[in-house]
Amino acid sequence: MPSLTRVTVSRRSHSDERRNEFEEQVLQALEGLMADGTPYTELAVQRIASASKVARSTFYRHFPDKSQLLIRMADLATKDLFDAAENWWRADHADADRSVVEAMRAMISGFRRHRLLLMALTEVSAYDRDVGRYWHARVQAFMQIVCERLAAEQHAGRIDADLDIVPTAIVLTAMVERSITAVFGADSPIDDEQLAKALGRAILLVTYGRN
């Protein structure tokens, strides 16, 4: 006879899988609706729910309002971006010239896949308190990882002892975020590979004083 614990875990796992599938379905539907140029702020909940093929009541059980919807969709859309960056900052930097560009390629690729949603996130976070608080906390969590690595590198004597860690982490984080947003937000002649190499070089210059 299966144990109660095993049955409970199995049910929870199945429930998590269903929720993940549902959220991915909503993300695809939402980005599909925005593909014709309709701003996120102009999309009605009913339209998003219909495109997601769920009842409005079901939709509201998962997302009480459009702020919470955008927050959850942003979590999904930025996971690969942050994973790529965080993994690089935690990894060995013996082959940093190559690995940092690979990390930037992954971030840029992820941004391209979810460009419309992430541009909406940037816009809405400027005036929506909940979305702004979410995005600030997410970026701060990433910056903490950067600070920890810079401190470790400084302690090991691999970077300048005079480097001011917190301001440097802010510069590095903002540089990558704003550069990608600027290139994708305009008709830029810069291609993804050029951007990845430029960002990789800039990160190494700021961090280690070399490229």
From TrEMBL:
Alphabetical list of Pfam families matching this protein: EthR_C, TetR_N
SUPFAM superfamilies: Homeodomain-like (SSF46689), Tetracyclin repressor-like, C-terminal domain (SSF48498)
The HTH tetR-type domain, residue ranges: 20-81
Biased composition (Polar residues): 1-10
Chain residue ranges for the region called Disordered: 1-20
Positions of the DNA-binding region: 44-63
GO terms of molecular function: DNA-binding transcription factor activity; transcription cis-regulatory region binding
Keyword annotations: DNA-binding
Keyword flag Cell inner membrane: no
PANTHER family per UniProt: HTH-TYPE TRANSCRIPTIONAL REGULATOR ETHR, HTH-TYPE TRANSCRIPTIONAL REGULATOR RUTR
Protein name according to UniProt: TetR/AcrR family transcriptional regulator
Gene source species: Nocardia bovistercoris
